[in-house]
Every structure is written in structure tokens, then in C-alpha cells.
Specification:
Helix 2 runs antiparallel to helix 3 and helix 5 packs antiparallel against helix 6. By secondary structure, the protein is mainly alpha-helical. The chain has one domain: Signal recognition particle, SRP68 subunit, RNA-binding domain (Hyaluronidase domain-like). The protein is built from six helices and no strands. Helices cover about 75% and strands about 0% of the residues. The model has no long low-confidence stretch (mean pLDDT about 90).
């Protein structure tokens, strides 16, 4: 029996989460704490905990294992947590001008890009067309932000334009 395509409103979920849990007041650390806590809760609900109190075993969400919208939610929360940490570091860097803060910011944005790429890959194989296009557009937005922070202006503009085109395709 074939699995029905999963539907998940990625941009609606991200927008509601950001507005409710800290970004209305530009509090990125509060939003990151929410993402980390909610990620742990969702992982526990689908029995994908990453270890016990003494042993850590990383569990990736793959297309073969993903069968519920909660699996897509895990991937979105991982990307959002890394993104929120990067934005928190950007604020810290703007106050202190410490070079290590900027390098850490870029590493966190790369982690968010990696999670966004994984989200787009998994969504393309198990989700409906609308969700997979939204996941791809979301990944492009994060990637564009990373290119912007690196000073790669043309790549950032390309990602922004492509994200807009893909986002308008499914609306």
C-alpha cells in the first residue's frame, strides 16, 4: 500500500512560531530555546530521541523513516534552531565586533543550510508538491542569508530571486 503524500505548511508554521515565541520582540535566544525544547518534545513523540543521559546517538530523519508530519517538523525545527542561534550571534557581533562571533555565526548559518537542504531532500520524496516547493524555497532563503553574511552578493541575490520564484509557483 502506497503512503499518502504528507502535507505541511512550512512557512505558516515558521511564521507562527517566530511571532509567538520571541521574534516579535527580536529575542532570538528565547526563540532558540523554544526550538530546542519543542524539538526534544517532537522527537520524543515520534520515538526518535538521540540518546539517554549518558550516551548520544545521532538519529537523522531520512525519507525512508519519515512517515508523519512530525518528521518534517523535526527538520524545520533543526533549521530554525540553528538560524536563531546565528541571528543571536549576529546581534552579539554587532555590539562587540569580535571576529570569533562572526565565524561562529557563519558556522551556524551553514548548519541551518545543511538542515534546510535535508528538509528539501526529504520533502521532495515524501511530501506533496506544495510542501516540497515550500521546503526548497525555505532552504533557498537560508542559503541566501548565508551568502549575504559571507559577502557573496550575487549568490545571495540569486538565492533570493529563486526563492521568490519557487515560492510564487505554488501559491
Amino acid at each position: 500500500m502506497a503512503q499518502a503524500a504528507i502535507e505541511f505548511d512550512i512557512f505558516g508554521y515558521v511564521h507562527d512560531s517566530r511571532q509567538t515565541y520571541g521574534l516579535r520582540a527580536q529575542d532570538y535566544s528565547r526563540y532558540r530555546r523554544y526550538c530546542a525544547h519543542h524539538l526534544r518534545t517532537v522527537r520524543k513523540s515520534v520515538k526518535m530521541m538521540q540518546g539517554t543521559s549518558t550516551v548520544y546517538r545521532k538519529k537523522e530523519v531520512t525519507a525512508e523513516e519519515a512517515t508523519k508530519p512530525a518528521h518534517i517538523e523535526i527538520l524545520v525545527l533543526e533549521a530554525e534552531r540553528a538560524w536563531a542561534y546565528a541571528m543571536d550571534l549576529r546581534e552579539l557581533f554587532s555590539r562587540t565586533e569580535e571576529p570569533r562571533q562572526r565565524y561562529h555565526l557563519i558556522r551556524r548559518l551553514k548548519a541551518a543550510c545543511k538542515a534546510g537542504s535535508q528538509l528539501a531532500t526529504v520533502a521532495a520524496s515524501i511530501c506533496d508538491r506544495r510542501t516540497s516547493l515550500a521546503a526548497y524555497a525555505y532552504w533557498l532563503q537560508i542559503q541566501g542569508q548565508m551568502h549575504f553574511e559571507l559577502g557573496e552578493w550575487e549568490a545571495a541575490l540569486d538565492c533570493a530571486v529563486l526563492s521568490r520564484v519557487v515560492g510564487n509557483t505554488w501559491r
